[in-house]
Amino acid sequence: MEQLLRSEEISEIGEHYDLNAPVLFFPVRHHSPVCSFHLKKAIEDYSPDCILIEGPKNAEALIPTLIHRDTKPPLALYYSYKDREGFISPAKEEYKCYYPFLDCSPELTALRQADQRGIHAEFIDLPYMEILAGTAENRGIRSEGEKQTYNDDYLLSRSRYLKLLCEKTGLRDFEEFWEKYFEIRGLSMKTSEFVRQMRVYCGLSRSHTPAEELEADGCLLRERYMAQKIAGASEKYRKILAVTGGFHTDGLRTLLEYQEGRGVRFLGKPVRLHKADEKDQSVYPMAYSMEAADALNGYASGMQSPGFYDQVWKWLEAEESPDRAYPDTVLHFLAATGRRARRKDESISVYDEACAFSMAEGLASLRGKRSPGLYELRDSALSSFVKGEYSVSTDGPLRILSQITTGEQTGTLCAEAARPPLLDDFERQCALFGLKIHSTTEQECTLEIFAKKKHLQMSRFFYQTEFLGCGFARRKKGSDLVKRRDRNRVREIWYYRWSAQVTAALIDASVSGGTTEEAVRTRFRMRFAGCGGCQEAAELLVSGFLMGLYDEQEKSAGRFARILAEDGDFFSLSRGFSHLVMLSELQDLYQVRDRMDLDRLIEICFQKILQLLPFMGQTGEEEQQACMECLRSLYQITEKETYALYRPVFADAMERMLERRPLNPGIEGAALGLFYGIDGNSGERIKTAAEGYMQGTEEARRGSAAFLRGLFFTARDYVFASGDFLELIDGLLGRLSTEEFLKLLPELRLAFSYFTPMETDRIAARAAAFHGKKGQDILRGRAASPEEYAYGETLDHYIREQMKGADS
Amino acid sequence: MNNITELKPPVEVRYKEELEALRALDTGRRPLNWKLSPNAVRTFILGSREPLEWNGKKIQVKKKYLGNDALVERCIITLAGSRGLMLVGEPGTAKTMLSELLSAAISGTSLNTIQGTAGTTEDMIKYSWNYALLLAKGPSREALVPSPLYTGMEKGILTRFEEITRTPAEIQDSLISVLSDKVLNVPELGDDGILFAKAGFNVIGTANTRDKGVNEMSSALKRRFNFETVMPVRDVSMEKEIILNEVKELSRENRIDMEPDEDVAEILASTFHELREGVSSMGHRIDRPSAVMSTAEAVSVYYQTMLSAYYYGDSHMDMGCLVQNLVGAVQKENSDDLEKLRGYFQTVVRDRGGKEGGLWSSYYEARKYLR
What is the DSSP string of A114-151? Predict the structure, then answer.
């Protein structure tokens, strides 16, 4: 530790706050109020004629939006890149990231100050696409599993010496260290001293990060580019203020050389940019939320509890002297927590607030801090506001505190902001339907789609946003037409929630159209054009129906007929058939004109199914269940009056299927069950087939469980209608050897799972009666002793071991 | 006095040297009547990084409370303020030890204590009389028998109230007026009967939340305290360290010349930790016993086993004896707990024995004592 803080090292790193130098480097941490505070002073002291800011170059055109009077943070720049050329990786993926700005962000302060003082300002970092290209896989801006942000403050908090530093100073983590030594103490320092200390800390942090890590994270490449830009600007401007992340300051310094009276000269190798297509890159400003900017919500580069630091910044902006900024902010949040808690009937008095404040000040003094900060605020609330043992029932005040220190604001953009028209349309529709999109809290909405026209329109809008994949709305209750579930429901309950990601997804979708409907139509057509089978196409048609795109059906009819003609998959056709039938019914229900001659398509589809059906008896075990489901669904459709004419031909096709050998016993059972539904007198046929399996040779006997499964799937009532069928099953079970029984057991279990609990009870009682017992007798057996249990476990273990051996 | 060693000397005696050194070298601001500044109190409890040089000696202040440093800091600041401090939590989480350390460091004594029981009465909390003197001289200060609370107010020192929730709620409430007005009225003494608390007075209460037979505290009394919830140690290695430290201290005091075995402490710490958390380090889900699996209980199991080894054995920890003592600790309230412990041995201990062998295997073999 001492070695790290050797004085010569410090003096070497921290000697530069020269107000006469052609370039003044100002190191910052993103969203740090103290950095903004001193940056303002530095601009005043240095009077630059150019301010260069670390920020991706391709967002430069958006600077006027960021500093517009009507634009209110939190905001973010949203960058996206489609790697069609494979510059980033052969996988040719899409990339996106956010660059958030709060009121207290030094970069925003720099831009605002430049605007007020008429100073030229520009971004100097590589365009987003180039940063991606210069970063190794799963490193830096390409880290997996993190919310991608442009900021790279994580570099300051992960170096090895920081751990030692926290240990030595008795602080819990980097955040507490930063707050104590920079945020709080920094306010009472002169700007030159603050810059020096930042340089010392950031320099040491950097010097203990291996060069390979810097390379892999893309730092070195970016620094070369930034240094190149600084050198370029120094040819034109006399005094340049370079505002960059503290971690980069030393890197930039080593790449630049002061030239007497002629600014600075770039010493590194110039960066060559890729020839990426402009169409693949986009950047938009967007409204952001404090919640999304909170480090505790996965935004690893931010500061935690941004609402707290934002309040500190408000104070600094409003008052002359910074001395009371932290104590007053702590008091502000204690009082606000108390007020809100009282509204929620928590018994927190003003005296409690006073005690908490005095606790915060006491803790600060005990911990050697000049003022209480976020940590003292949390500690004092825990001590003074939680009455009784700390638990979920008593931590209400702390939850309130956490919520308000995170902050609840969402930003707004000025009317002139470059926005994709899709976003405007989305907001217009939300306003039209009275949907709350200025809060990040989840909202609930019940729609009576058959009673109110507006509700039907809202439902369509929700389905459209769902189709665009923007994560705005999700249906909690209501009929699911695509999966064909809960079709009897007349109301829909939707949950919706605005978040920055919704905006991001809409920006992504904006290439498809200017309004929600337009974008949906474009994507619908694209997906329809790529459909490979009847099921997929029919499901898409159902989605289109839910979104109110009735006229799309007309345009899709020709393509659908082609898909139908090319599809030779029984399962896809059967499922598609069900969807088409449902669509036809829905058109009647919603009184929508049939624009694609559905009846004709249904007819074609059914004919194709009939052609394939006789061969389905040979379906393998893995598709047995799917085949049984298709048969049952076809049966159910032919039961309807509209399709009654299909019934005889369907039965005929099934008959032909049963005649072909070999025959899957499960499908045979299911088909015979359906025949039993068509003609109640065909029970004898079932019995004969079942007896055939049960009394057959060993191999055939094994098929009996599958047969029963198929049968019970389509006609479980047969068990109760037929007097002696259960006896037959009982006989079969009696004849089986233990080994055979164990082989059949999984299938038998499945077969009996189709019965309701009450039916299972009836079957069990009758089965017990065959052996002179009552249902109750078989419910309880002898309890296994611990020894037996242990023996069983040993045996299990032994078998597992043996089987492992067999595998290898 | 005499040569018989006290079973458990008070904190201020055990750490006399540390306290004296801290006091002599303390330059921080002290609240009125405090023996040490808040910073020095913190150092006394959480330890000093460098040894203190005092009286020609280097004195290393040991870390005495392992766990949450911020909690200790909050406790110190609470005591410097106008509210009492209430330490709540499961039994065996070192609440009492923390309250003793705080009292010894702040007031120089940890003995000014009220022990709360179901039979505690209001006069035990406020004051009572020496009836012989009362009859002979009438009500006078001389005839008054001060309670620890009275003494605390009179001298400006801390009063500890142990197990406050064992005391009936209406008796607990007699603290309310004292804590808010810092005045105790003794009507029998007339005009002289008003005792104003001196600076430095405050109350540290401890209350446990899991035992049977505890009373709820009134909201009015709760408002007069800052609550600190002391959580069980969540880290196995820290629990092991606590067991070893405590056992070393106990064996030193009782002159047991035997070094504790770190591996056994680790096994015990794992057992207690896993039974408390309901999940083993290998991922087994475990039925949690209803008995309190506190670190203090683990220390006691270890120490008992150590005593057996010292007096009856060859000064080596015997796993059979450890398991027998463990049964005593677990099977207290519910007979199902023994079954749960057996289940733990049949799964976790067996698998760890199979994987790691050594002591874990002997631990598993000692399962025959689970009865």
Answer: HHHHT-EEEEEEPPHHHHHHTS-TTSGGG-TTS--BS-
